[in-house]
Specification:
The protein is an alpha/beta fold and 363 residues long. Helices cover 41% and strands 20% of the residues. The strands form 3 sheets. The protein has a 6-stranded mixed β-sheet, sandwiched between helices. The two termini are 30 Å apart. About 4% of the residues have low confidence.
Length: 363
């Protein structure tokens, strides 16, 4: 699953990507420094793995991962090919959801592409270009469905669905804000609309803004705007996060304490991104390996087993499950079993985040 990091030029996209992935993507004070998207795979922070490792002393600990893509900065007219518009739109089409970096800091040394700091204007600039691109896609779908409608009345629902979305787009609303029933949502999903992708806003602030971030006027505006989309906003100082990313263990902990933070903003971004994609982790634990496995929320036990190996899904018999919290309280699987906290679940069981699982199968 891929998260695309987007924003106007010089808002801190590549700096955020550097900090998240420690991949060293080129970063400079001019537009379009990022032309081809940089891609980095990062671990999802999960303190549960460390606790399980203390119990099992495994040879290997493997976290869940998520992929971040640093996409070229967008400018007005991108939907008509301005700047690197065509590249931007094709790259964003390939990601599953969006992290939009919004500049909320003042710095005369870093040029703003529109000449002043105005986060809502910046968000609306990007939204408008995505809306224009979606309007073109939606109109093609309407025209195509109307042609097929002459021969088959079942395409009426497709026409109605895309006309509903078209009306919203023409009034400046995003596709993800349109109320769709289950059938309509399935039809719309097939169009891969840019404004249908879930979004997380990162408000990039200066170190001076950190202490009173919630009271900052620019951040308040972004939070209010995000509420209209049911989106989350994470304020962070991208420059500090880049510095934190170079530190290890105790040094990082000391710097976080000095800043009055419990965890890095990056950890919050990565966790929120994982959740935004509708993902969660189940866990397997033993002496060879303690591991987090990524699945979609709502996944049933056999399909979760298939994440480990297709043979386990094919020959699935049952899943022996204990919740992470119960296992930690018990101290071991044996103790959890004695206390009756270990459950045997069948094919219809819907996996829960933090389930520690042993799959029984026969091939």
């Amino acid at each position: 699953m891929k998260m695309g990091i987007v924003g106007l030029p010089n808002v801190g996209k590549s700096t955020l990507f550097n900090a998240i992935t420690k991949a060293g993507a080129e970063c400079a004070n001019y537009p379009f420094c990022t032309i081809e998207p940089n891609v980095g795979v990062v671990a999802v922070p999960d303190e549960r793995l460390g606790k399980l490792a203390e119990i099992y002393h495994p040879q290997k600990v493997t976290p869940a991962v998520i992929e971040f893509v640093d996409i070229a900065g967008l400018v007005k007219g991108a939907s008509h090919g301005e700047g690197l518009g065509n590249k931007f739109l094709s790259h964003i089409r390939e990601v599953d959801s969006i992290v939009e970096v919004v500049r909320c800091f003042e710095d005369t040394n870093i040029v703003h592409v529109d000449g002043s700091i105005n986060p809502i204007r910046d968000i609306e600039t990007i939204n408008l270009e995505l809306i224009f691109a979606d309007m073109e896609t939606v109109q093609k779908r309407i025209d195509n469905a109307k042609k097929k409608l002459k021969a088959d009345k079942k395409y009426q629902l497709e026409v109605d669905t895309f006309e509903k979305i078209s009306g919203a787009l023409q009034s400046g609303k995003l596709a993800r804000t349109v109320a769709l029933n289950e059938e309509e949502a399935e039809i719309a999903k097939d169009a891969f609309l840019l404004t249908m992708k879930p979004i997380l806003y990162v408000a990039n602030i200066s170190e001076n803004q950190l202490e009173n971030a919630t009271e900052d006027e620019n951040i308040k505006k972004v939070v209010e705007y995000a509420k209209t989309e049911n989106a989350q906003v994470i304020p962070l100082c991208v420059k500090i996060e880049e510095e934190l990313a170079t530190l290890d263990g105790e040094e990082e902990k000391e710097m976080l304490e000095a800043l009055g933070l419990e965890e890095s903003g990056l950890d919050r971004v990565i966790k929120a991104s994982y959740d935004l994609l509708g993902l969660m982790s189940f866990l397997t634990a033993g002496e060879p390996e303690v591991r987090a496995w990524t699945i979609k929320k709502g996944t049933k036990a056999p399909q979760a087993a298939g994440k480990i190996h297709s043979d386990i899904e094919r020959g699935f018999i049952r899943a022996e499950i204990v919740s992470y919290d119960d296992l930690i309280k018990s101290g071991s699987i044996a103790n959890a079993r004695e206390k009756g906290l270990m459950r045997s679940e069948g094919k219809d069981y819907i996996m829960q985040d933090g389930d520690v699982v042993l799959f029984r199968f026969n091939v």
